[in-house]
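Q: Could you fold this chain for me?
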Amino acid sequence: MSIPGPKSKVPAADNTLRILKLLSSRRGPQPASAIATALDLPRSTVYQLLVVLEDHGLVMHLKEEKRYGLGLGAFELSSAYSRQEPISRLGRPLLAALVDVLGESAHLAVLHGRDVLYIVEERAKGRPSLVTDVGVRLPSHLTASGRAILAALPKAQVRALYPNSAAFVTRTESTGGITGYAALSRHLDDVRSRGFAMENGEITPGFGSVAAAVKDHLGWPTAAIAVTFIEDRIPREEWPALAARIQKVADELTTRLYGRAKG
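A: Sure. Below is the predicted structure, expressed as structure tokens.
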């Protein structure tokens, strides 16, 4: 069934926005033919608009799959929106309450290109300062927050974010074994199976993090909540219980953002 568009005096702009809205509403990349059918547009028009969107980084073309998905530019627009208020304002009191209960520091991050951008940090009393201050960007494949978000993205989208070995930068001697796409893909499979993301020493030696994704009502990752701690303070066998607490807060933030729990 096609999705009719509103009448507009600037049909090209209207149809461009309709394509972006459609791609953002779908779980993964779409063929151009499916986009044309859904929006009741000529295929030639859709192809022309997709080329323009690709030139601006708002759409990426997955040539092997003959599909189109949201590009890095779209993620950056989403991150900019997040920084401007809603997620940080609604998330801050939830993180503060989590820190009060756990006695460990917590932060909220969004995807920004291949990095995660930290938009809220709640530091626990008496705990050391962390590198995850507000406004800091870190490689998403090395952080628990980033891994939680990446694991919730379609695999094709992750592959497009990490097209070659140059995308895999390091911070410390520990990379968690993630130095290429195959290793990253295996790690994200583990995150999905385990139900939460973690990191130990990849960002700061001696520190661990556990994270869960904040998802919208379609299951798309909007952000991630993580708790960071000195590894000796929380035994590894207690990490799943910690993750369950974090996931509960992430689900509450989803409800506050979208008016309902993730579907």
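A (continued): The chain is about 45% helix and 20% strand.
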